Amino acid sequence: MLIDTHCHLDFPVFAADRPGVLARARLAGVQRMVVPAVDVDNFQSVLALCAEASDLYPALGLHPCFSHDAEPDLATLTAALVAHPVVAIGEAGLDYRPGQMAADRQRALLERQLQLACRHELPLLLHVVKAHDQVLALLRRYRPERGGIIHAFSGSEQQARAYATLGFKLGIGGIITHTRARKQRRLAAELPLEWLVLETDAPDMPLADYRDLPNEPARVAEVAAVLAELRGLSVAEVIRVTGSTAQQLLRLPPY
């Protein structure tokens, strides 16, 4: 099953042609799409969009680059998780690039979401930038039973193995279509295929042939093709294994 485990289909950039975006994804063979929220301001748009189609699945979370009013936002998230069925908590995480929210505030926000993941027995969709060791330390502390996905994985082989030990899969997206991304392409080729899931991060993280265009879920099929080429496998095998991994992790219904 071809699954895009991370696409922001509710974002305004898609408003003018969302039916077309979805039609192109389905025509490309995409059978499941996970739509994560980034802040309380788009919880309702994510939930409403996913309620309209049986192949769209919501996740709710507080992104470290978008959520700045922690306590009210956490209260809203806590209530939403009780009121609405979701497949994961996310997009959450740590982003330690300059100019982002203070590290201690990010950490506190993520810890609360880890607690919610444990309480609700949900997997996590984690955004991790320049903070893999810090996230790993928190995961070892809280040990969320359902694991999750490290979105747009950018870490080392050692960090990949540490995440896998903790039940986390690694999101592989458009970056592997760029020949200059040598580390990401090497890891995508060499890590166990069972550790990997496919994603687009639409409308972001464009593929090499679409640098100036918003990314779309349809292009996860091209990510699968490049991953297959890097590994010397058939595209069908890559789709089968990554789809099975994502389906089991997120408890998505069979196609």
UniProtKB/TrEMBL annotation:
Chain sites annotated for binding a divalent metal cation 1: 6, 8, 91, 201
Where, by residue number, does a divalent metal cation 2 bind?
A: 127, 151
Q: Do the record's keywords include Protease?
A: no
Q: Which Gene3D superfamilies match?
A: Metal-dependent hydrolases
InterPro entries xref list: DNase_TatD-rel_CS (IPR018228), Metal_Hydrolase (IPR032466), TatD-like (IPR001130)
UniProt keywords (A-Z) are: Hydrolase, Metal-binding
Would you name any one GO CC term? cytosol
Q: Does the keyword Ion transport apply?
A: no
Looking up Pfam families in the UniProt record yields: TatD_DNase
Q: Which GO terms describe its molecular function?
A: hydrolase activity, acting on ester bonds; metal ion binding
Q: Which family does it belong to?
A: Belongs to the metallo-dependent hydrolases superfamily. TatD-type hydrolase family.
Instruction: Please give the name of this protein.
Output: TatD family hydrolase
